[in-house]
Amino acid sequence: MKKPSPKSEPPFNLLSKPLFIVLSGPSGAGKDAVLSRMRKSGYPVEFITTVTTRPQRAREKNNVDYHFVSMESFQRMIENKELLEWANVYGNWYGVPKQPVKQALDKGRDIIVKVDIQGAATIKKILPQAVFIFFLPPSREELATRLKQRHTESHFDLALRLKTAEEEIKQLPLFDYVVVNKRDEIDLAVSAIEAIITAEKCRVTPREISL
Q: Number of folded domains in the chain?
């Protein structure tokens, strides 16, 4: 009697590879709003909170929107090698804490982190297998409108951010995907990010992330 040929085991190991998702884009593109919506929906991903020396704005929650720290504390984190990357953006310092990133990856959890373009470029050098998503408003005019409505920038700062946005868009080739966040269509932007994550999970050759 002919013995049945052994069946190969399904590649379940492919499903266990965690993703490191980097969300970046111009100031005012709507990154915070999208991440907030994903958090509230209970989407299964670890949201890494950025550390910053920037003053806390109205309606922002410490340790949720950002970890707000003093310049002295931020400098100490750099010296102790506690940050994965850091950069000065519009006169304030921002950095990604290394420990929660490592803990999530060790547990096999997908993570998503929001950084500026400088931060994305730095992470690209450290972790080239991360998933890089560029977030954009539909137009320069829409970006200007959103920045004005925040009432957090002076006329000079507003002009600077718009000019910087034009330079940042030139960095698009560093990214894997681009998502356009249209006014009052935040759920579509969230769906686009979730679709990107689903597509990455279906890759035949998964991305290998090690920190």
A: 1
Q: Across the chain, which distance is largest between two alpha carbons, in Å?
A: 85
Output DSSP code: residue 181. -
What lies within 8 Å, CB to CB, of 119 at 6+ separation is 22, 24, 85, 86, 87, 94, 96
CA 27 to CA 115: how far, in whole Å? Answer: 10
- Domain of 183 in residue numbering reads as 17-201
DSSP class of residue 58?
Answer: T
Query: How confident is the prediction along the chain (211 residues), in pLDDT tens digits per residue?
Result: 455 444 444 455 545 689 999 999 988 888 988 999 999 999 999 999 999 999 998 888 999 889 999 999 999 999 999 999 999 988 899 999 999 999 999 999 999 999 999 999 999 999 999 999 999 988 888 877 877 777 666 777 778 888 888 888 889 999 999 999 888 899 999 999 999 999 999 998 889 887 7
- Please check whether residue 5 lies inside any domain of the structure: no
Residue 42 falls within a domain, yes or no? yes
Tokens (6 digits) for 197: 């994550």
13 burial type by CB count under 10 A (0-12 exposed, 13-18 middle, 19+ buried): exposed
